[in-house]
Write a structure and sequence with these properties.
The protein has one domain: NAD(P)-binding Rossmann-like Domain (Rossmann fold, 3-Layer(aba) Sandwich), CATH 3.40.50. It is an alpha/beta fold. It is about 50% helix and about 15% strand.
Length: about 260
């Protein structure tokens, strides 16, 4: 299994492309000769990135993924520009680091729309055509948070658990179609995520060996997708902790995670 070859009429559509892991995906794919569609809210940042990629087709596509109508406009714009999406990287997301009962209801809904609804929406729009063509790649960014319910980060960990489960099921559904679906489950990554999620205090509690750069994460994800992997967890320490989280009794795990969040 390999990534579909670059084509003039096709792009890799990358959400959350203005910084962090999304930006790293854009740079790595451009190095490989793929045209890229850059999606995020900040048009200025996307245009600056597009100007640095050079030599490949770049489509700047500002979009608020929490808005269903904005997603409709994004799809219409791609159709108008005559491009096919053969690689889809659902990477945009943010987290809420507070007890659910104390957090803002609209912010919680916005998180669910970006982290879950937009992933389902864009995958539904572009996966069927990939299957029809017999080639394509979907990479959905989940998280090591997907392996455990995290008090104080409850709706984020639940959303990422959805992305992981959704992606693994799609992997099996598409296994004989020529399309690969891979769930990316990074641990902590120093990027714009901490600012968007107001997670700097939480980040300080995480051990140094767990951290990876956006470039390391993007490269690991692409290598995994290229070899047809169902799930990619960059870094041995994160893989070990993920196994521990999955096999530790919930009653114990919840108390430990609650104590860490305080």
């Amino acid at each position: 299994m390999t990534l579909p070859p670059p084509r003039d009429a096709a792009i890799a559509l990358i959400t959350g492309a203005s910084s962090g892991i999304g930006e790293a995906f854009a740079r790595e794919l451009a190095k490989r000769g793929y045209g890229v569609g850059l999606v995020a809210r900040s048009q200025d940042k996307l245009e600056a990135l597009a100007g640095e990629l050079g030599g490949v087709r770049t489509e700047v596509l500002p979009c608020d993924l929490a808005d269903p109508q904005a997603r409709d406009r994004l799809a219409s714009e791609l159709d108008a520009r005559g491009v096919e999406v053969e690689i889809l990287v659902n990477n945009a997301g943010f987290g809420i680091y507070d007890d659910f009962a104390q957090s803002d209801r609209e912010r919680e809904l916005q998180q669910a729309r970006v982290n879950v609804e937009a992933v389902v929406d864009l995958t539904s729009r572009y996966l069927p055509a990939m299957i029809e063509r017999g080639r394509g790649t979907v990479i959905n960014t989940a998280s090591t948070a997907a392996f455990q319910p995290i008090p104080g980060n409850s709706s984020y960990s639940a959303a990422k658990a959805f992305v992981l489960t959704f992606s693994e099921a799609l992997y099996e559904e598409t296994r004989k179609t020529g399309v690969t679906v891979t769930a990316l489950c990074p641990g902590p990554v120093r990027s714009g995520f901490q600012d968007a999620s107001q997670a700097h205090d939480f980040a300080k509690s995480l051990p140094g060996p767990l951290w990876k750069s956006p470039q390391e994460v993007a490269r690991a994800a692409l290598a995994g997708a290229e070899s047809g992997k169902r799930r990619v967890v960059p870094g041995v320490p994160n893989r070990v902790l993920g196994l521990q989280a999955r096999h530790t009794p919930r009653s114990i795990l919840l108390r430990v995670l609650r104590a860490q969040a305080r």
